[in-house]
Design goal:
The protein has about 600 residues and is mainly alpha-helical. About 25% of the residues are buried. It has a three-stranded antiparallel sheet, sandwiched between helices. A two-stranded antiparallel sheet has the order 4-5. The radius of gyration is 33 Å and the shape is globular. The chain has 25 helices and five strands. Helix content is about 55%, strand content about 5%.
Length: about 600
Amino acid sequence: MTPRLILILAVTLNLWALSTGLPPDVVFKMMHPKLEPISPLLESEGADNPLHISQPCWDALNRTVNITIHKLLNGSVPLEVLDSFGKPGAGILAGNINMLGHFDECESVQDFKYCLASLNVTNNGTSLPLPMNYGLCAPQECTDLDVGLLLIDAHVPVLTAVCTQYPHQPFTWQFFLTVTFFSLLFVTVVFSSLYYAWYHAPSCHRDGFMPLDEQSAPNTDGPLRQEEAPAFASQDHHKEAENDLSVVHLQQRPQGTVLRTVNKVFFSFALPQNLPKLLSGKLSKDSIDCLHGIRVLSMLWVILGHVFAFTAMAPMINPLTGLAWFKRYGFLTVTNAFFSVDSFFLLSGLLVTYLTLKTMKKRNGRIPWRWFYFHRYWRLTPAVAITMLFWVYVTPYFGHGPLAQVSAQSREPCKQYWWTNLLYINNFYPTNGEAGCISWVWYLANDMQFFAISPLILIPLYHIPWLGMCFIAVLCCASFVITGTLVGVNQFPVASLQFQPGPHAHGTFFDLVYLRPYCRITPYLVGMVLGYILYKYPKNSIKMRWVRSVLGWIVACGVGYTCIYCVYGNYNGHVWGLAASAIYEALCRFAWLLFSL
């Protein structure tokens, strides 16, 4: 579909909106005599169904066209139907080719529904796809296929056509089961919070209202021993009780194992117990304070990059303007936000090494490796499973309309590939990473795989440090070679944002490089080296002169600046060669973390 045809369609729709009700294809015929309009076919008495659409839709269109032509002027037709159709706005040549119409206006008309068609538009100024979205108001009897056939007959290159349905997918038993599960979870949190508050309330611990597990038969032989007294009892209370012989003292018995376990499990859902821990700003003496700053800045950077990425997936009025931003020097902070993910890999490797080596030191080099793996899996997997459950069976019902229906279809892969997330192999299978279930958890798959092989490095680091360092160096070199080779063989450009495969590529950059652990492991390995250094040399054990500190900051800032902004020329006509692209992609993450953090 050429820009000329887009302008013709735009003018046609404007003329139609300003005319006395002539259908758009009739006006289109006036400007394009080679194309046959479909309205005369609809108007002809007793005409067959040459468009092969469903008979109810055919009948509804006949009624609508006849009413439109003969009764528009006397007000027999709701003008909202025509007014809700998509119409062109200003800036078509600047990329404003989306004509979404008015969803609410169309839905307010009885017996009509809003439909959204995606048309195939080619733009000579960019290699990226530039789909056109066109909104129209169709009779309730017409299906998605009917709308698509109508547009195809009008010689419009249709990719998809989606009409509003409610609900846009049926309420299945999985939906009701999921809602029941989350409702029970909510009720559990409420009741456990109330029970926790009652259990720890001062009034609950008076003699007559103590919890059953803290009560026993009265003891009149004397006051409670200090070590037997409940933790909540104060010194003044004991002295007052000793002076008052009429007070009946209670002998506290040890809490039963079963009741203690039940309370512990039930209290784990209590907000009064969990919120103070989650919101606490207290740091332990072994805490590495600077890591919190790195985590916050990296997370803000991740959010910044994804704000623009998700916006680009929705219909926009200025897509070509957005593409022009990539040529701006300052916008490279957004396009190269991928380094923020590498910062998290570094933190993960650092903490695993630092904490594990400290534990091995306390245990004389021994670690219960079965619990090492189980604790990691148990800490992450329930959250991943609940996220998938909510995403697949609840969120599809949050929206209404064609865009919500298209978004709901993106949940379908979860029904086939959900198990790959629980096994943390979703960065390998399915091979098309974007076709997986909640594809953003590719990070957890990589991190779990790095964690799985970490003992192969941690054990040598503890017993024979130089051997562990040599193993890390070998893995880093292997990652450099593999990443550079993949980039060179597939001829990927240096600009990491360009995920579209080239003519000689065997897949996208996202699938072959970005997701793969052997291409992303270097930040984790750098973190392991840093974790070993922090373990070997505790806080305040290394003193650095201010001159070295300033030089270190200058070098670190310079290398980090280079990693982000050196690709500016590639976006502005100075395309890098294949060798330079391969070297950059192989070494940029290592350089970013080794010198910048």
